[in-house]
Amino acid sequence: MSTLRETFLEELGTIYDAEKQLLKALSKMAQAAQHEDLRRAFEEHLEQTEAQTERIEQVFEVIGEEPPGQELQSDTGSYPGSRAAHQRT
Fold first, then answer.
1. Cα dihedral angle (76, 78, 83, 85), rounded to 10 degrees?
2. Distances from the Cα of 47 to the Cα of 9, 53, 61, 81, 84, angstroms
3. Given a cut of 80, is residue 40 above it in pLDDT?
4. Does residue 4 have a pLDDT over 50?
5. What is the rounded end-to-end Cα distance, in angstroms, of the chain?
6. 25, 44, 59, 87: least CB-packed within 10 angstroms?
7. What is the phi-psi region of residue 77: left when phi exceeds 0, alpha when psi lies from -120 to 50, beta otherwise?
């Protein structure tokens, strides 16, 4: 039987993984969009998804855990692919 914390971490990890997959898909769709309004809509959704992913990373940090498949980069103090990591490079 899983503890509440284990269940929470598992579900949060699943959501985080889905957001990361969506980031990749939205980026590809924005690049492939031929209509300007559609491209802008994808880009706007991409920005919102980046912010949501960053918030999830903050939750992991607050509870002292790392997102699944991610290791904190010691040189930047952020997770690979996060907006904070891009801003520091």
1. 20
2. 25, 10, 21, 13, 13
3. yes
4. yes
5. 43
6. 87
7. left
Sequence ranges of the domains in the chain: 4-65+77-88
Dist. CA 47–CA 66, nearest whole Å: 22
Mean pLDDT for the chain overall: 84
pLDDT tens, position by position, 73-84: 545 444 454 444
- Structure-token match 């790392």, residue found: 66
Three state DSSP letters for the chain? CCCHHHHHHHHHHHHHHHHHHHHHHHHHHHHHCCCHHHHHHHHHHHHHHHHHHHHHHHHHHHCCCCCCCCCCECCCCECCCCHHHHHHC
What's the average model confidence in pLDDT over 62-75?
74
Q: For tokens 């985080």, what's the residue?
A: 16
Task: Report yes or no: 57 and 23 within 8 Å, Cβ to Cβ.
Answer: no
The pLDDT, as a whole number, for residue 83 is 44
